[in-house]
Amino acid sequence: MDQDEPRGEVVAAGQAATREKKLGFFGRIALFFRQVIGELRKVVTPTRKELGKFTLVVLIFVLIVMGLVYGLDWVFGTATHYVFGVPGK
Question: pLDDT digit string (tens) for 40-64?
Answer without folding.
Answer: 999 999 999 999 999 999 999 999 9
